[in-house]
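1st attempt posting a full record on here, be nice pls
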Amino acid sequence: MRLRARFEQRDLVAELKLAVKMTGASVLAWWLGTLAGEPRPIFAALIPFVAMSGDPFASVSISVERVLGVFVGVALGAALLRLEIGLLGTVACAVAAGTLVGVLLRVGATPNVEPAVSALFLIAFGAASTFHSGFARLWETAIGAAVAILVAVLVWPPDPVRELEHRLRRLRQELGADLAAVADDLSSASGVVAGRLDDLRAHSLEAVRDYLDLDRARRALRWNPLRRKDIPVLAGVEERVRLAGRLYRHARAVARDVLDTDTLRGSASGNRLATLTREIAEAADLELRAEPSGRARSRAEARLAATDAPDEDALVVRAQLRQMLADIRAGVPSR
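the predicted structure (as tokens):
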């Protein structure tokens, strides 16, 4: 089921566009390399495939670390081929040095393999037997990098706002379903929360990751001249992503508390808290859709005031629900 859900979440149109951009940039870089005098500019064509990514929050969707890795690998391979240490020694040195450099030029949390791969590629290609030809490979790489950056910026540039809105829609739907499950368990002791607690935790972690991606989204907009006009729009989306993160933190706590309270579920107090949960879920859904939620909030606030907490278990759940309502009230002050 999770594999199916992951497949359904893929943006196949975006992936097809990325494939077209990579192919077009690679062919263009090859053609420009031949115009520069290289009959087989393989490294110029290689860079777009190495550097371009589908990350909507990457600056112009280019991995600078991978580009630098290719440059370093080409230079390393060219230098090693000038040494008289035999093919096996050249390969061993290329792998060792490339791996060490890759640790410094890591991509995210993992070492960058491009220095070692590019050095090995150059050695196998056998094109850098002289200083001049090795220098030419560096120029090929520069041509490929320039083409990759221009194509990434000008052709279907990444859209951080659209990606955040897509994630926010997913979070909103998941939050509604999770709160509905909590309300159902509170009113009827159905035990549904126990069956979806792991999914709820995963949804909460997704909300945290989306929150942490906000800085990357802002940087991506600033670095892309075709998307800078979306910066004002991003501000509103940011507020709602932050709100979703706060709501999920409390929703996760409510679910855990409900699961730990046998006496509350199915009781009269549990039924009242279930009704309150549904009204808070309605207000949250409206707020996360950037629609007026004043009436729904007022109903939930009146319900909260009328809902007692006869024991400690009910008091704990009610406190979390009250905090969720306070977060919704403060979510977008302008509405």
